[in-house]
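Here is one chain, start to finish.
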Amino acid sequence: MRRGFNLNFVYILPALFFIFVFNLWPIIWGIVLAFMDFRGVTLTGRWVWFENFKELLTDERVWQGLSVSAKYVLYSYPFTQILALVSGWTIAQLRVIKLGKLYRILLYLPVIIPVSAGMTMFRAIYEQNGYLNIVFIKLGLPPIGWLTDPKIALYSLAIASIWRNFGTSMFYYLVGFYNVPLEVKESALIDGASLWRRFWNIDLPSIKNMLFIIFIQSAGALTGGLAEVTALTGGGPARATTILPYYSAEISIWGEQRLGYAAAINLFLSIFTLVLAALVIRLVKVEKE
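Its structure:
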């Protein structure tokens, strides 16, 4: 029995190795860096303990980045979930199985398309001489600085984020809707329930646990958006789209290469996100099955 156990442990060693190298070690090293003054140029560091955290508490750009991140989530996440919910429920109602498969593939494509390709497409749409402004000019309207106007750029970014991310949530909802018991649906049809009543009284309550997962993910949305910002706006114009993850990357990669300070910002954001998730768990009451 012991020999079998040891043999099984040997089988999972490669998986454990990759988990440690690519999952656990970056987390451990990131926490260690947060307490160091580590420079990327010289690859030398010294322990500063809580000095990085003291600095970020007085760093206006940290709080500005957190504010922009919160606005970014507010502009994108609710609409992402609404679109995902409607899409998932609509596909679940289709009686033609092949048609449902086709729609699932088409709506999930933005998730698997490389970020660079997707954002290149949006840049072609948003540019001053892009497709969207061409339509505006044809209609006799003035062109709009979708990526150059500080008042509009974050909204443009949110639209690109909705397009890229709603497919993932759609599959969560779709799984929930597919698990609604068939006899319940048939009983509602026999009773003559309208489409809206079936959705509100049967389908939506059936995915309450899935909604709980989505609500928790809303806190984690604060850590997203780096790829979209990097590809479309570079944090501009006038830092209007400089979300906190981008500010962290700016410090560690493109700026002073202060890896320790950037790690402290990321750790602060992670703790902030965990606190929000804990609050969501306490506020949202879900009936256990």
